[in-house]
Amino acid sequence: MSGLRGLDFVVYINSGTEAIPVWSKVAGQRAGTLNRSMDPIDVSNKDDYGWSSSLDGTREWSIDFDCLVSETDTGVLALESAFDNGDQIMVQMRTPGGSIYQGYGYVSEMTLEAPYDDVAIFSGSIMGDGVLSKT
Asked: What confidence tens digit (pLDDT) does each residue in 54-100 have?
């Protein structure tokens, strides 16, 4: 079994409209992380004899990213605009096998890091709003 290269997992932002999406790759990506979690509901009771019991609760997802600074890139500009205006965005993370994780979210963090002795990067998080679908 061979490993998958991280560079083949790519984040795209819809820079068009919902009716006519235009999927813009976020340029200069260095990393992307898809996070999924579930908040369990505790249903423990005395009949469990000291063992915890739970039901599956609400699920949430987010995508963390970092990319080289490109002040003219359509994807980066869409992320900045969404953050500045509090707009909901459509986002995709595409895998090398052809899977696409897609959903709506908000840019919850957008950081510009410009160290003296290294390359400038944007990093941030997109907090999911609702279902994350996989096709």
From this structure: 999 999 999 999 999 888 999 999 999 999 999 999 999 999 999 99
- Locate 79 and state its tokens: 């992320």
pTM (whole model) above 0.85: yes
Helix (H) or strand (E) holding 11: strand 10-14
Residue 2: what pLDDT?
Answer: 64
Domains and CATH numbers, the chain: 9-40+55-134 (4.10.410.40)
Q: Name residues whose C-beta falls within 8 Å of residue 85's C-beta, 6 or more positions apart in sequence.
A: none
Calpha distance 54→73 (Å, rounded): 45
* H or E element that contains 79: helix 74-85
Q: For residue 105, give every residue at least 6 positions away whose Cβ sits within 8 Å of its Cβ, in sequence order, or none.
A: 62, 63, 88, 89, 91, 126, 127, 128, 129
Q: What is the number of residues in the chain?
A: 135
**Under 8 Å between Cβ of 61 and 132:** yes
The span from the CA of 122 to the CA of 100, in Å, is: 23
Nearest partner of 110 among 78, 73, 72, judged by Cα: 78
